[in-house]
Amino acid sequence: MTFSAKILHWYDVNKRDLPWRNTVNPYNIWLSEIMLQQTRVAQGTPYYLKFIENFPTIKDLAAAKEEEILKLWQGLGYYSRARNLHATAKTVTNEYKGEFPNTYKELLQLKGVGDYTASAIASISFNLPEPVVDGNVYRVLARYYGIAMPINSTEGIKYFKKIAREVMNVKNIRDYNQGIMEFGAIQCTPRNPNCADCPLNDSCVALKENSVQDLPIKLKKIKVKDRFFNYLVVIDALEQSILKQRIGKGIWQNLYEFPLIESQITPNKVAIETELKKYDILNQKFEYYKFNEEVIVHKLSHQHLKTHFWIVTLEGEIPNGVAFTEIDKFPVPVLVADFIKTFKF
Q1: Catalytic residue (one of 33, 130, 182, 275)
Q2: What is the pLDDT of residues 82-92, one digit of tens each?
Q3: Which parts of the sequence belong to the HhH-GPD domain (predicted)?
Q4: List of long-range contacts for 162-169, beta carbons under 8 Å, 24+ apart
Q5: pLDDT digits (tens, 9 = 90+) for 154-180
Q6: Residue 33 annotated as catalytic
């Protein structure tokens, strides 16, 4: 039995019942693939169901407000995915009359759609012989063939794509592509895979050479940068606070947060007063205290945000403040959302 035949047989017996597997509609496939990038299935599934409920079609998604999309996305992280999702929904609605392009090359032109996602949609929705290569597939191929080439190098990316194309099952590309990804997710797992019960164990190079835990190989990541966040949670006499939108490029674009002083030095009264002036709070008496004595470390892919929240109470009121009852309606980063839950406005 060939490699692809073994994968197909395994998938037929072991595949999970996931909501996007009940359709080949490219909208559903695209939505699930974007959501599951850098997200576990268990975490992403509720978000997928929530999006389908709120936006049954791509036209519904295109017509939504960005803030509404970001709020539903809250907690999934990598918010550029949500913004790209919205942009692509508009493109497909306006330029393709609501119908997804049905070729790999056209799919690749959509914002936020790379080689993997284009291949997944092309094969699953349109039955085109395009191999998928995601983290799970890299792991399966690297171990089975004993490939020590780094999967995130230029040469490695090209080589693994070549191997994936050579071994794919063209006649049943839909199930094969989903099968090899599923195989990597629940059989050939990153740590402690169940090699004893693996249908590929009789010909797996990594198992034979005792290098399963060493593969795949990745080049070292970019050095992590520390940033120091001091959030000012301003509270006035009318039970209002301040939320501001992050603009420009960088993390959390277009999400909302409390006024921020980014500094390793503990902010003093003068620094806080200077920040408050940006919100037309002038010459008001205020008191402040540190909410969390122990620093909160929020880890992003290339940044660690070392964070303190400061409660700032005003005697007067905030011009155009946000009522406590409205705070929950704004899309915010998880770091801020966790504080809001803890503080209980």
Answers
A1: 33
A2: 999 999 999 99
A3: 35-186
A4: 164/131, 164/132, 164/133, 164/137, 165/131, 167/3, 167/4, 167/141, 168/4, 168/129, 168/131, 169/4, 169/5, 169/7, 169/8
A5: 999 999 999 999 999 999 999 999 999
A6: yes
